[in-house]
């Protein structure tokens, strides 16, 4: 898989992002998780990220506000958010990155990922049609794939 792009500016938050933050906090508290300042700040890092972030990126960001926060704490929060479907995980050759979940992430979906700007387009698609007749009468239980390529705005600019 290609390496994620680097060095892009942080997004500034829009009203829709704040609604989303509020919804994520509600989801956490419905689950019974404590809403700490650090957890809120971690959610903000994901909301403001222009693309994918690694656990190390989140730790670096949070350390600026909460010096001494441990990597373990950050990682546990990321796992909690992921378990609740607030963020999604993307596995690269040499690292694991995270991103805010696609809207409607509860439904089965796949990702079209632009390798230039890291835009993600989610796609609803039934993969079972591709695997109706597999060798060795193989029975699929789970599908896992993402499509890497170039989005329309990046195609226009190259
Ligand atoms: Zn998604
Ligand atoms: Zn693009």
Detailed description of the structure:
The chain folds into 2 domains: 15-100, Orthogonal Bundle (Arc Repressor Mutant, subunit A); 110-157, 2-Layer Sandwich (Dna Ligase, domain 1). It is 37% helix and 15% strand. The protein is built from 5 helices and 5 strands. Strands 4-3-5 form a 3-stranded mixed sheet, with no helix packed on it. Helix 3 crosses helix 4 (71-83). It is globular and about 55 Å long. The site of one zinc ion has 7 residues, from helix 5.
Outline the fold blueprint.
Layout: H1 15-31, H2 37-48, H3 55-65, H4 71-83, E1 87-91, E2 96-100, E3 110-114, E4 120-123, E5 146-149, H5 152-157
Parallel strand pairs: 3-5
Antiparallel strand pairs: 1-2, 3-4
Helix pairs in contact: 1-2, 3-4
The structure holds zinc ion (2 copies).
InterPro entries: FUR, Fur_C, WH-like_DNA-bd_sf, WH_DNA-bd_sf
Protein name: Peroxide operon regulator
Keywords: DNA-binding, Repressor, Transcription, Transcription regulation, Zinc
């Amino acid at each position: 898989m290609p390496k994620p792009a680097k060095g892009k500016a942080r997004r500034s938050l829009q009203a829709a992002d704040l609604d989303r933050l509020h919804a994520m906090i509600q989801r956490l508290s419905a689950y019974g998780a404590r809403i700490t300042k650090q957890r809120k700040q971690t959610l903000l890092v994901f909301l403001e990220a222009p693309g994918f972030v690694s656990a190390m990126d989140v730790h670096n960001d949070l350390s600026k506000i909460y010096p001494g926060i441990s990597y373990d704490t950050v990682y546990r929060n990321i796992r909690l958010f992921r378990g609740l479907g607030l963020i999604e995980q993307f596995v690269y050759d040499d690292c694991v990155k995270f991103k805010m979940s696609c809207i409607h992430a509860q439904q089965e979906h796949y990702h079209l990922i632009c390798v230039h700007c890291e835009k993600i387009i989610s796609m609803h698609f039934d993969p079972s049609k591709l695997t109706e007749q597999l060798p060795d009468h193989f029975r699929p239980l789970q599908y896992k794939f993402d499509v890497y390529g170039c989005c329309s705005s990046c195609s226009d600019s190259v």
